[in-house]
Amino acid sequence: MIEIKNVSMDFSESTRSLTQPSLKKVSLTIPEGCIYGFLGSNGAGKSTLMRLMSGIYPPTEGIITIDGESVYDNPAAKEKIFFVNDETTQFTGYTPDDLRLFYKGAYPEFSDSEFESIMKAVELPLDKKLATFSKGMKRQTVIALGLAANTKYLLFDEAFDGLDPAMRRMIKNIITDHLIDHSASLVVSSHNLGEIGELCDSAMLIHKGELVFSDDLDSLRGGFTKLQLVVRNTELADDSVLREKLSSLGLEVLDVASMGSIRQIIVKAGEQEALDKVSSLTPDAAEAVRLTLEEIFIYELEARGYGSADFLK
Q1: Which terminus of the chain has fewer Cβ atoms in its 10 Å neighbourhood, N or C?
Q2: With a threshold of 0.70, does the pTM exceed it?
Q3: Which residues lie closer than 8 Å to 17 by C-beta, 6 or more apart?
């Protein structure tokens, strides 16, 4: 497994700036054989955490281990990880064949046949410089290199950025087939929450360098509920009173929206628990709906002052 224990990363000394630490006391366990999603607002620290997990630089505090071994400055641990950065500009002067030779020197299990098979499937040449490739074609090439390296852990930062819908589906199928065949684990970040919900077993949310939550997706979805209440001519029609009463019942309220006599309330609780507690308030009618992963993301960040409109652009 990958274990991240009380990890902080502060660039302020090296940059001589007054910025906040990039990561603050993050602890996370990523078990073998899973697909783990990294969610977060822009600049939240997802890419920084992936670079730390890859051993590119050491954390300011804390430790990251791969199967019990510290990853920084440890070639044996690094051989177990392939990191696909969200930038591909560093590869533009090379052909896919050049990159194949480079990574074969770093990864003992690199498979020429798997690399060639994936490149053939996505119809990309091996002898053309990546400078001639589109953004999506560069991304496909680097993913092919990552899969062909046959590492135990794959870290893909914005893996599907620049791919059209048909190619996204093909690449996802290639990745999932590889993970099954090789019993590998994948950590993937994406701003497409539908994609994370469709692909991943578990996910975490990070905001301003702090871990908001981490859990398997079924548990995450089961921990949030959208309550829809009908309240006519009662004190519950006052949103502030409604919030206070829900809080007194032990429900953490993330949002209240009014539409005439209907109140839509987002709470941190399972559906049945939320309904059982709100029934004591005797609303005219009540129903509970489970939130989508996108709604969970938005409401959690809005509760921390981050505007969802920026994310949805």
Answers
A1: C
A2: yes
A3: 11
**Can you tell me the distance from the alpha carbon of 256 to that of 253, in angstroms, rounded to the nearest whole number?**
8
The string of pLDDT tens digits covering residues 145-178 is 999 999 999 999 987 887 888 998 999 999 999 9
What is the token pair recorded at 248?
Answer: 């007194």
Note whether 18 and 75 are within 8 A (CB): no
Report the 10 Å Cβ neighbour count for 112.
Answer: 11
* pLDDT confidence tier of residue 231, bands split at 50, 70 and 90: confident
CA 160 centroid distance within chain: 13
Residue 296 resides in a domain: no
Residue indicated by tokens 């990251």: 64
Strands 285-290 and 225-230: antiparallel
- Describe the crossing of helices 165-182 and 135-148 by its angle, rounded to 10 degrees: 10
Unique residue bearing structure tokens 């502030």: 240
* Domain enclosing residue 63, as ranges: 2-216
Q: How far is residue 182's CA from residue 180's CA, in Å, rounded to a whole number?
A: 6
Q: Which of 209, 189, 157, 301 is nearest to 22 (CA)?
A: 209
d(CA 211, CA 170): 32
Tokens for 212, please give them: 């908001």
